[in-house]
Amino acid sequence: MESSNRVTPVPSNTNTRRLRVAQGLVLLFHITGFLGLAFSDNPEFYQEFTPLTLILTALLLLAFQPGRNAAFWSFCFTVSLMGYMAEVVGVHTGKFFGHYTYGDTLGLKVLSVPLLIGLNWLVLTYVCGNLAHYLPLPQLARILLGALLMVGFDLCLEPVASTYDFWHWSAGVIPFQNFRDWFIFSCLLQVLFVRAGFKKHNKLAPLVYLVQLLFFFFLGSLQ
């Protein structure tokens, strides 16, 4: 007698529809935010939705992670905690990333650092790790590529960070130390991604990276 608990596979056309809906939502979040920040008379209104956009994007990515096992959740917790603690050290000592302070755009702060910054590190690590995993590369090359993708994202974000009250650099100058430390720390996080025991294939990840990269690139180009 066959078990009645057999899991019925989701039809491929259903999966495709879900992916298209998720991609549409990601585009909607970022296009609306871009137009509001760049062209409205009240960009501060749109800045208030930054935490919500980050959380919703993370949830959409989570929905397309196959096999969310204990190793996956452990990775999420570890990266989020490490990212947050690295920022605490950076803000209070200047020995990591440089001398900077956080504004109010990213929401509630504890120890002068937004709690959501850990989620931001997780999303970026996860998305860039997935992109690097698409290529048939050895492990070290994937780690380095993932870290470079993370630094590339930061290069587009930094020019507009102070404009929209994400964070502010001492004397308004972005130090080379920031990009150096970003690369070092990103390599460490990519090591965790590569070694974590969960499936590294999220169909939404490429669009999330591209949309966020272009979002900050075009905001910067309008300054």
From TrEMBL:
First and last residue of the signal peptide: none
Keywords carried by this UniProt record: Membrane, Transmembrane, Transmembrane helix
Cited InterPro entries: CruF-like (IPR007354)
Transmembrane segments: 21-39, 45-64, 71-91, 111-131, 143-162, 182-198, 205-222
PANTHER family from the UniProt entry: SLL0814 PROTEIN
Protein name: Carotenoid biosynthesis protein
